[in-house]
Prior knowledge:
The chain is mainly α. About 60% of the residues lie in helices and about 10% in strands. The protein contains six helices and two strands.
Amino acid sequence: MWPRYVAPAHLDDRALHTTLAQMADECGNETFALQTEIAITRADNRAALAAYSAPTLILNGGCDGICTPQHHLAAAEAAPHARWITLPDSGHFLPLEAPLTVADALRNWIKETL
């Protein structure tokens, strides 16, 4: 599963792996099972996005094999006021893989939006 979660550049990042393993351990099996159930039974909420009128930032990792860029594109196309940004060298865990890039993207979006 690891290669589906992180960008190729982070496959050998032991610190990232350790951090994510600790986070998973802290959540426990019950939370993992609940999160998995929510993910596989999640309804298509694009209609709700279409009705949402506030500015929206959709940020994803280009190497995310779990929530792929195509999933994010569908959300961005549904949301009338969305800005979609893909970070090409990141996977599923954007804030951990590219914290400064995520911070810059958020900062720039806030400046442009407010």
